[in-house]
Every structure is written in C-alpha cells, then in structure tokens.
## 1
Amino acid sequence: MFRDAWAILVKDLRIELRTRVGLWQVLPFAAISLILFSFALGPKASTLAHGAAGMTWVGVLFATFLVVGRSQSLEMGTGVSEAQRLAGVDPAGMFLGKAAAVFVQLLAIEALLGLGAKLLLHMPIERLWLLVASSVLATIGLAAVGTLYGAIVAGARARETLLPMLVLPVLVPVLISAVKCWQAASVSKGLAIGEWLSILATFAVVYLAAGIILYGQVQESQ
Amino acid sequence: MKMSQDLRQNIPPSDLAFNFVDVVALDGQFPVLAGATLCGAKGTLTAVIGGNGAGKTSLLRTLAGLNATSRGTAQVLGCDLNLGGGQLVGRVGLFGHNTGLYDELSPRDNLRFLAKVTRNSKRAVDEALAAVDLNSRVASTPLSRLSAGQRRRAGLSAMVLRSPELWLLDEPHASLDPAAKVLVDHLVAGALRAGSTVVLTSHEPELAFFMADQVAEMAGGVVTKITRGQGGISDVS
C-alpha cells in the first residue's frame, strides 16, 4: 500500500511540476479571493487582522476544490483508471498517494496565503507552532475528504459543481476549527485550543481511514 | 460453436485460459454481451472479428473483468468472473483505443511509474521502450505531443513491461504504419512464446485467419461462428 502510495504521490507531483496548473491557476485564484475579501471588509487594519484567519481558510477551501478536481481529472483520461486497476495498483495506496499529493499542494498554497495574510491583512503571529500544527492537521482532513469525494463524483456529469455541494457541508468542522486555531495563534496566550486541535486530528484520522477502506469500492462502482 | 465445445472436451479445464458459456455481460445497466460462448487454450491466439457494434470490444473488456457478468459461465485464468473481476488484477492486460497512460508524462515517466506499482525494474522499462522502437527523444516527450502511432507504441510498451498472462488487444494494428504493424506481430509472437494467451480484435479477416489459432466471428453481442485459423503468428521470428 505505502509503496503504491509513494509512486502515486511522486507521479502526481511530477505532473504538477510539468504542467504548473497549481502555480499559474490555483494559487492566483486563492490569492485573488483573499484580496477580494479584504476589499469587502474595508481598509481598517484591525478589522482585516481580525478576519484574516477566516478569509485565509475560505481561500484555502476554494483552492481545495480546484486542486482536488485537477487531481481527479488526471485519472479520468485515456483509460488510465482502468489500466491501473488491471495493473493491480492498490486502491488504498492510490487514495493515500493522491491525498498526499493534494496535501503537499494545499500546504504550499496555505504557506503563501498565510504570508499574504501576515503582510497584507496585518495578521499577527504569536504562536507559530500552533499555526503550523493546525494547518497540517486541517490540510490532512481537507486532502482526505477531497480525494474521497472527488473519486465519488468522478463519474458524474456535473462533477465540477457536485463536488463543492457535497464537500462544503462536510468540511465545516475543519473550517471552524482551523480558523479558531489560527485566531488563537495570533495571540500569545489565553484562548483554549486543545478541543479545536482534537477536532482537526479526529477529522483527519476518520477520513483517512474511510478513504483507505472505501476508495476501492468507489473506484469499482465508477 | 462446435469448435469451442470440442476444445472444452479435449482440453483439461486447467489448460483453458478462458471459458465463456452463454455469457451475458453488462456495462452499467446496458447488456453488451447477449450469451457469448467462446473458450481458448493457454498459449494460443484467438482473433475476434465482426462489424462495428458486434461486441468485440465488450468481449475483451469482459475478459478483463471490467464488465460485470450476469449470466452464464465466465472463467478467466481459473477465476470465476461471476464472483467479480478483482481476482484477475495484475494478470490481464488490455490494450485498446486508449493508451491507459498519462498524457502529461512522457512514455518513459509513464513506464517508470508503472514499473514501481508492478514491481518491475528500471532496466525493464528501457527494454520495454526498446521493444516498441521508441527512441530516447520520443520516449522523453510528453504523450500529449506524440503522434497517434507513437502513442499506440507507448501503450504497447506498457503491455510489454507488464507481460501479463492474458493479452487483450483491441484492434492493435489500427493507426500504425506498416513497420509498426510488423512490430505488433513480433510482440504478439513473443508473448505467445513466453506462454501468454492473446485475444485480439481485428477488422481484417484475412490477417486474422492467417495469424490466429482460432477466429471467432461476432454479431449482436454473441459469437456466431468459430473457425480454426492458420496459426501463422508462430512463424514470426
């Protein structure tokens, strides 16, 4: 399983490096959404700083749909999916590999959006470890849910619109918890974050396990 | 049909690569085989001919375990397809109109990925590319930039790399120049010599009769006639 997952991860990232869809399309889209949110809130620095965490994570959520859609579209072309089934690629490895590739891309986008939030929206960062830990846990959840649901809607005609409709409600706990953690990271102490981190960790574990178990059945039903 | 019955009676079941009796297969809810009967011994070449929509591709996909069977006896490489096609994983290769490769990657990168997931060596990748005469420049060019013939060769190289027990080739000579057609014949002959079984579809009946050990004619999702071929592929060195 892990060997196949590694092969899929390397392959997906290699395709991304060759095509640079994430760099030229997804990242600008996420950055523009962050800037538009800041325009909507007005120029007051304190208001922008207060809303920075929320704006960043909504931007990340939008980017998730694009990255996941792109990730699944790679498997839709020219009989690739069937060829891999026949070649004996482990579905669990496939899920883990694709989720890992989505994770890496989203984490890179988050790092750049976080930098944008710091510079443009004046978001203070007092506890960097919390920012990083919550981002990693939240991104595992986003990547796992996105990859699993992306495969579920892969065969549907209106998959581009179906994916956000199905996934957005599921990702609400991740969005709220990640924003709470980022807000807590912007102050030196005071806000309890244990529960929010637990929610992110639980969410990540549950959906990773669900993906590993269900991905093969989802593929076969396509 | 009688030939299939003779084959079933004369050959031990363990020597049959595939054995279809009155198989009905579905693509989703749509029936694509309507009671197909055909069997083939291990290490032989079966050619399937018939007009467009006769069910040739559906037969190959069913043999690969990609279409669900809903009636009849359907055994491939000793696996009962009525229990699901999952048991065939890794043992069957299907080369169709699609390459089954990633357009964004070069043939070499595609094969390296395939080698990792099928536990093959890097040397096997080079050998597979050489077997289909893809030079290093073409092998390093993204598939999306290659011609139809070069893409077909790349797809064939994946079959060579995997060397499955059962080769299913859907019109393998299509979109290929004469030299590449000869190359396909060499690959098929090599696979047969290595003990694999080959089933291919063709729109060229004369070629099919010359190459194959048996030729099955299809129409309307059923095998209408089975004829002994000349088995000329074994003469390809």
## 2
Amino acid sequence: MNRRFFITLTGAAAVAWDSVLAGAPESSPNYKVTDHWWAMLIDVDKCIGCGNCVRACSVENDVPEGFFRTWVERYQVDDMHLDDPLVDSPNGAKNGFPPLPPGKGLTGPGVKEFFVPKLCNHCADSPCTQVCPVGATFTTPDGVVLVDETYCLGCRYCVEACPYGCRFIHPEKNVAQKCTLCYHRITKGLTTACCEACPTSSRMLADLKNPNDPIHEFMKKHSVQVLKPHMATGAKAFYANLDGSVR
Amino acid sequence: MNRFKDSEHLLRVTGVFLAGIVLFLCLRAWFVPKSFGQYGHYRADSITEIAALPIRHAGHEVCESCHADVLEVKHTGKHANVNCEACHGPLAKHAEDPSIKPVLPDTAVLCARCHEANSAKPKWFPQVVTAEHSQGLPCNTCHQPHKPGLKDTDAKPADSKTADSKTAEAKK
C-alpha cells in the first residue's frame, strides 16, 4: 500500500462515516411518535353493515378495486353451527349487504345475524413484521404496522403470516399493502377515514397512551376482546360485544 | 539470518484485508439508507413518507368551521353524531378550494345504504323497506337529512304510514 492509496481510502471512509452520523429528519414538528400507542375500538353492536368505512378507506388510500384494507363480514349463526358460522362479505361490503338469497341462510334454533368490521389489528407482536426478510414492514414506535413500499420485494411472506388476512399484494405495484391506520391522518390530529365515515361510531380510533382517551373508560365498563387471542399477537383492534363464533 | 524477512507477505495480506473492510464499510454506508436502524430494522424515513401522503377526507371539524348553520340543525336531530363526509363523501379538495362544488348525494340511494331493512342490522337501528316505504321517491321529499323526521310538507307517499320504521321491524 502506498501513501496515495492510503490517503484516498481515509478520505472515502471519512465521507462514509459522516453520512452514517447524519441520521434522519424529525417526522413532524408537532407529532412525537413516542407519545402515542394507537389502537382501534370496534363496537359490533353498532355496526349496521352500510359499507361506508370500506368506501372511505378505498378513496382515502387509493386501494385497488377488488382489494380491501378494511372490510365488513356478515355472520349468521344458529345453535347447530356455533363453530361453523355462515360468513359472507360481498365485495368487502363496499356496496353494503343485500339480503341473503332465500334458502341460503341458516334457519336452526337461536339464529342470529350481525356484522363484524375487520381491519389490520396492528399487533404489538405482529407475525407479519417478523417474517419480512428485508425490513420492509415494521411496527412504528407509536404502534402502527406499516409497509415501506420502496423496500418491499413482494415476496408475500407477510401475506401468508398474517393470521387475520389483512394484507394483499398490490396488483400493479407488486408490493404488500395493508391498513396504515390512516397514518397520514392520525399524525395530523385527524381520525382515520373509516372512523370519520362511520355513521354509528361503531369504530373509534384510540390512543392507549393518552390517559384522557375514552377507550380507558369504555374498557372499564365493557367486555372487550381481540380476535384470535390464542395466537398471542398482541392485537390492538379491540372488539366490544363480540360473538364467540367470530374468527 | 533475518527471522522476519518474509513478514512483508503478512503485511500485504493484512493490507488487502483492511482495504476490503474499508471498501465494505464505504459501500454499506452508500447503499444502506441513513435512517435505517434509527428505530429498528427498517428505514425510519418511510414513516415520514407515509405520514406525508395526501388527505382525501377533510374531517368534520373543517366542514363545521364554514357550515356552522348546518351544524346547528344537525345537533338538534338524530344525525347529530353522523359526520359530514359519512354522507357527502370525501371533500378535502372542496375544503381547500371552496370553488370546487361537491355534487349533492341522491337521497334515494344514500339513505337506503344505512336504513334499508336487513335482518343482520341491529334491532335498535331504524330501518325501512324502501320499496314499500317511499316507492322510489327521494327520501328528502319528506325528510330533512340533516335533521331526520318529517318535514312540514304535503308531498307524502300514499301509504307512508304503513311503512314506518316500527312496522318494518315488526315484519322481521
């Protein structure tokens, strides 16, 4: 190694080290990621299956036709089918629910019907982020599971890993997409598009780190569950008045 | 004679290794984004990028800042807690530039989305079978959408009495 080569290398190393130290800009002047821990509260008894949330979400987030970041399911259960309910979601409930065709529904004793809105559970220990081989999906410090579209390879591991079926591959971009909990809105002090459009306040955005958030009072007074608790995903989509048959 | 006469070979190999390590560090610094690893094994800048996406729903507070008159009417009725964009659709563009006039929704379609009778809807929710209740007339013929209940008008469908929400519920 001669002196010239050594000096060249030292210069390059200095430039590289400088760029390592530079770091990233602050995300938003008035928003601190460490001050929030976002969740969603869903009251099943209030859902009327109008599909407003699905339409609002698809417009707000440019969701491609035929794919859904949130959707609504119609459950029909009777005493004979407690573990095997009839579930349908025509076009994700984007156009609401037509009545079940005659003869299609369950007719056993104790038959009941209800709607269940679904979306990403923004799990604290999310299976989808753990399987990403390139660090393209992650949980933000404020508890929202996001996808970095510039990093995603479209390998579909996360789509397979999500126990709630909340992810899809964008047909044109070929990257994984999912509910962002309207991150572009909640960081500006707005609520999510689905909550904004829900006419019965069946969905409520909740900030678990905010001691004044109504969710704390609600959870004291109501029985609240998460979907698939046995999977220990730390799901943060909390359901009130959820029927035992819902999967 | 000289025990270290071949040590130059070792020095050369060490030099090659060091050069390789420095090259690796330079390339790594070049290719790995600056914010990668700030919060975890991902690019922290992508959070900022996602947070900067455009908004389509303005939010009811923005609507209410101009349309306070509608808010007053709405607060006295059953639709007090229904946000503006639940019925009027996403209107952030109109909020930014009020000269962009939104299209008024067709109440015959709009109201039915929520109030069309369906056995899966919760029993407390007011529902009608629109075909029997209004015979295709737009709902705002009789009802004021911002404050539902009957308007003071004579233009009622012939048998609207037979198909109010209670009747529809009783049929289920």
## 3
Amino acid sequence: MTEQLAVAGLSAGYGGPPIIEDISLTVEAGEIAVVLGPNGAGKSTLLKSIFALTSVSAGSIRLGDRELSGCKTSALVPLGVSAVPQNKNVFASMTVDENLDVGTYAAPPPDQKATREKVLALFPDLKDKLKQPAGELSGGQRQMVAMGRALMSEPKLVLLDEPTAGLSPAYLERIFDLLLDIRKTGITVLMVEQNARQALQIADHGHILVNGRNHLSGTGQELLADEDVRRLFLGGAA
Amino acid sequence: MSEFVNFYLFPALTIGSIYALGAVGISMIFGILRFAHFAHGDLMTLGAYGIMAATALMPVNPLLLVPFGMALTIFSALFVDRFFYRPLRDLPTIYTVISSFGIALVFRSMIQLIWGSENQVLVAGVRPPLVLFDTIRVSVLHLQAIVTTAIIAVLLHYFLTATKTGRSMRAVADDPELAEVSGLDTAKVVRWTWIIGAALAAVAGAFAALNTSAHPNLGWNLLLPMFAAAILGGIGKPMGAMAGGFIIGMAEELSSYHWIGDEALISPSYKTAIAFVIMIGLLIFRPQGLFKGRLL
Amino acid sequence: MELTGLFFYIVSLLILGGIYALLCLALNVQWGMGGLFNAGIAGFYGVGAYTSAILTTAASGRHLGGFSMPVPMGLVGAAIVAGVTGWAVARICVRLKSDYLAMASIGIAEILRLVFVNESWLTNGSLGVSRIPRPFADFTTGRMSDVAFLGFVWVIVLLVYVATTRLYDSPWGRSLRAIRDNETSASAAGKNVEKFRVQTFVIGCAVMGIAGGLSAHYFRFLSPTATDPLLTTFLVWVMLMAGGSGNNRGAILGALSIWTIWSVTEIFTNRLPPEWATRSSFIRMLLVGLLLQVVLQRFRAGLLPEKSPPVRFRKD
C-alpha cells in the first residue's frame, strides 16, 4: 500500500532565482522524515514544490513509480498525496464535520464511514466538536482538524508544514504522538519542523537544509548525536 | 396599522426579495471569483426580457416561463465568463471589474437592440389584491415574490450545507488556497457559482419587471442596493446576502413611512439613496458585514 | 459648404475630445498614478458643471443663481467645489480597497445625481439650467464662437497636461506610484499613504469639475442627463485603458481616438436603414463594450504605455 518518496536533483523557486537547488532526499515507505534548517533555508519551499505550488526548474519527485513533478496541485490528492499547510489550514467558517468531509471530495475513500471512524479514533478530541465551526477551535485542535482532513482521502504520503508552530508544549507532545500513530497506519510522513529535538526523536530520518541545499542527512538518532547539529539546532547542551 | 402593512410592509418585502435574489449571486461571485460583478444587474434585465420574449410565444403566466429566462442568463453568464473574465483571471481582479463594466454595457445594448428601449409590461391589466383577515390586502405578485424567495432560501441553504458541490463552494469562498491544496475542483465550483447566480438573477429580474415594467435599465438601477445587500450580509455568505437584501429593501421602503408626525421620514425621491448611504457606511465601519464575511 | 460643414464637425469633435481629454487626465491622476478606482466620475463632473453654470448665469427664478460671474471664475469655482466634494468623499472612502472604492464612488455619484434631479431650487431639477454663457461672448458670434471655445478648451488641456506631467515626475508623483505599486513597503518607508491618496483624489476631482464646467458652457444648457454614468464614467475608463493608464499623453490620445471612433461611427450608423438608425447608439455602445474587452485582453498597456517603472501590482 505505501510507497517511497524520492526527490532527486530538485531546484525550484517562485519565478525569480531558485530558492532550493539540487535537493535530493528519499523517504522510505511508512517512515517519518523531518526536514530541518535555519530560517530561509528553503524547507517550506521544498514542501510546496512537492505539492506543485512553486515553479520547479529541474529534478524529479517520484512517489513509488509515479512521477509527481509536472502534476497540478489538484491532481495530487487523487494520487495519494495530502498536504497540511502551516497557517490557515482549516476552512474556518465550516464545521469540523464539513472540514473532514471536504477532505474526501478529491479522492473519495472506498468506505467513507470506516475512514471517518479511523480518523476520529486518531483524534478523539474532535468527536464532541463536530458541529462547531473550525475557526472557533484552539490552535492545537485546528491542527488536528487539518490533519484529519488530509487523512480523509486515505493518502499514501502526508506533507506537514510545521505542524507544531505556535502550539503550547502540551499540544506539541500530542501532535508528535499523533504522528507516531499515523505512522503505525502505514502512511509515509514528510514534515518541516522548528522543534528539532522532539522532531528528531520521533523521526526515522532527518534532512538538514542550509541555503537551499542539502547539508546533512541521517537517522534521527545520528543527527541528535551529531556535533554540528547539536550546536546549530539543539542549543549546544545535549 | 393595516395601512402600514398593506402599503409599506408587503412592498418592502417584495423589493427585499428582489434584492435578496440578486445579491446571492453577487455575494457568491465576490466570494469565489473575488471580484465585484458589475454586470449582474444587467444579467437580471436579460432574464426579464428572456421571459418576456417567451410570453410572446406562450401566453401563460410569465412566472411559469422563468426557466426560459434562466436558460438565457445561465448561457450568457457562462459564455461571458469563458471568453471575457477567465482570460483576465491571473491579473489583479480590478481588470475583471473593469471588464464586467463593459459587459454590463454589452448586455444592455443588446437588450436595446433586440427589444428596444421602451417600457414594456409583462402582464397587462390589474389583478385584484388578495384580502386576508378582512383588513390585509396584498397583491398576488407580492405574495408570489415573497413565497418564492422563501422557498429558494430554504433550497439554497440545503444545497450549500448538504451537497458536495455546495460545500465545495463554501470551501473555495472560505479559503481558495486551501481548497486547491485539498484538491477541490475549482473549475466546477466556478461553473456552479455562475449557474446559481445567473438563475437567481433571472428570477429576480422577473419579479422586478412584473413589479413595475421591463426596461433596459431595470437591473442596472438595482445593482447598487444589491451590492449593499451583499456587503451587509458578508461577502461569500449567500444566506447573509439574502438577509441583507431584505434589510436593504425594508430600509429603503420604510424610510418613507411617516414614523414621526405626518411627513414621510425621508422624501421618497431620496429612497434609493438610503441603500447607498448604508453601503458606504458599511464599507467604512463594518466591511465584513453583519455575518462576518470575508474581506478582500 | 461641404468643407465648412466638415470644418465645424471637426471643431465640435475636438471640443468634446478636449473635455474628455481633461477627464482622462484627471482619472489618470487618480487611477494611473494613485491606483484609486473612481467609478463616480459623472458625479464630480456634474458638481463642476452645475457650479460653473450657477456662478455664471444671470438671475433666474428657476434655480439658484444671478451671480453673473465671468466664465473663468465659474471654472475656478467648479474646480474648488468639485475638489471639496472630492475631499469629503476621499476622507471617508479612500482607505477602501479597489472594488469597494468602485462601489462607494458609484453610490456617491448616484446620490449626487439624485440631488441634481430633486433639488429644484438649486438646479431647476430635470428641466435644467439654460442660457449658460460662453467665454469671449463679446468678441465672437455665431459659429466662430465654437472656434474660440475650441482654443479655450485646449489651452486648459495643455495647462492641466503640463501640471500633471510635472506632478508625475515630482517627488510627490514618485511617492504616489510607490504607494500604488506596493502600499506596504511604501508605508514602511514612512510615506503617509492616506494623505497622498486624499491629495490625489482631490486633484483628480477638481480637474473633473473643470471638465464638467466646460461642457456646461459649451452646450449652454445643463440638465441631470449630463451626469449619465455611461457617457462620462464608462467612456472615460475605456479611453484611459485604451490610451495607456499612467501615461498622460496616452490619456489624451486615448480620449481623442475613442471619442473619434464614438462620433464617426454615428455617421455610418445614421446611414443604416431607418429601423436600425434609431438604434445606432446601442450599436455604438455594444461596440465600445466589446472594444474594452479587446483592450483588456490584448492591449492592456494601451496605445502609449507607462514609461518605466512599469505598472506592477501585488497579487492579492
């Protein structure tokens, strides 16, 4: 069911000079991979490029045997790729239930009821908020709605842009736990994160970008132990 | 009291119904395509004339021929969107606004070319009003307009909340980027926006023409109150636009009622200014409308 | 005879072309330089027309008047009253985003039209103001006064052209274009965006007022139909888009070329069979509406595009 994501030699930008150049990374099927890097390193641009929201000038993006580069954004959900943007990731005026429902439109799952049960089992907090407009929820709950919406199409790969941005430490833990739960269902996860330490603890692999290029890659544990990484992202002390 | 109800309340509700039906389309187009559609009033006129042309062939109650008007407005709206608005969609929306100004003129001049510029009545003769509870007299047309609008409101609410297309439309109006990321079929949403907006414009045009008479400036004269209604209801909120239409219609009509003393509160010749004043006030103090619509 | 007829046809074409050129220059200050979508040109044009008419006519029992001022004074008055009206409108509306400003300005133009129609003590309502004087009435008679008026109009066009072109190149104009192209960074650079916008709007409205005044003196008669949004607001927008917004010479060229098309087509449509000739103005409207679509899609920069820096908008 799950498939490997392979990005090779990817260069992309927003019409002007490329923001990311010659990026290569692979995410094995069913793994969690995290992209780290300083501000302006091109992390979000990488994610947006996979989701066809930038102009890609070179390179390939493959999910299993499918080439994704060149596809339109709207064509990606049916191919099994879902994305959760960083800000404004819910339809604020629509209820939680409607938000989840919208997630099924582009790629209706074979058994919508079962998928909904599965998603609500992952996010039990949402069960008693189904009739509330998503805009009225807290930041952490909105993140859950957004992730739930992305999962409603039964994707093979989920892209998350800073899922814990602006959340309280308690919610941060919740979200990372949820990612591990999602991993258990066999979905491949690629995310950009600022909270490097926690992210590397749950990730199978990490990739560090600097100035729009590959800087360092390794397993989560390797990177946590790396001197450079500790100095740059983990605030020195171990 | 019965004077107020017969001569002010029912006419006000009728005008409100017309505004409500027109404002729904304006609000949806504004919310989903992000521009103020200045040709919407003339789309209404087109619908009214389409119905009038059909009555010449089939002498039945014009309201039964509304589908012909709808067909004409839907075709025109889709045609204009495809050939005139869509090529400008990647530019700043102001170009589409200017284009829609021109389209308003094209619609109006075609109406004048085909049907002439005289006032034309859809139904000749006067029908006696219905008398309810001995004191309330209401014209059949007013009742038809109010009831039709109420039924459309219920159907529209069902469509927007319970169908896939309706929910997709609300999603696009809410956040177009997220809608794209979610893989929604934006082209289909745009198509349905025009279909519904144009169909309701035809109904509004029919009632407006029946209420007075059909003339080429019919819809253009109603455009600004309908913009006011759409803003009042919150851009991208069709149900809000309906409520806004009724509020604007009531405010206009009831402003000339003699609330204080025997004089009309505001001279009836300035009646249409009420809507503009409300609109300008709203734009400045509460542009998100009463129902928290989006801000451009 | 044929030649004299042609001569006076061209004179009247150029007089109205000049009045439209003024309106285009005024709109170019507001839209081309300031990015302000004024869809209420007809309103300010009307304010100017009525002001100048009332200030210059002899006493009449039908409307406010009896000031009998000379025409240039009337035009100064037109500029001031239209400018003050524009200032009042700008104070309220100038913060609005493009589409909203368009709606608000149409609304204001409609309110002004209602005032012209309903306040008979001021304007004689729909019967209008008549016997409005022409300038140089003492020196010229008959059709020669048209020629004198032509010179008068184009001297004003030239003055406004020079003034607005100097404004465009001045530090003031540069700030304005900076605001138009990127409001956020301009205000970050310490520009008082709102003040600049109000100034732009007022200058444009004052010039529109002068144009309105000139039309009243040209026709010698003024009624609320002069403020028809079609012939003023809409046609002026088409002219500016066709000529090239942001470029003053483009504005004048656009006004003259569109007005020529508008007028000359009348000659052809008048030769149509009678049942079509009565509808000629609708055919012209249709053609202008379609012409605008062609301009928007194919020649967006206009006949004379704005010189550097090019018009650039933020995508919203």
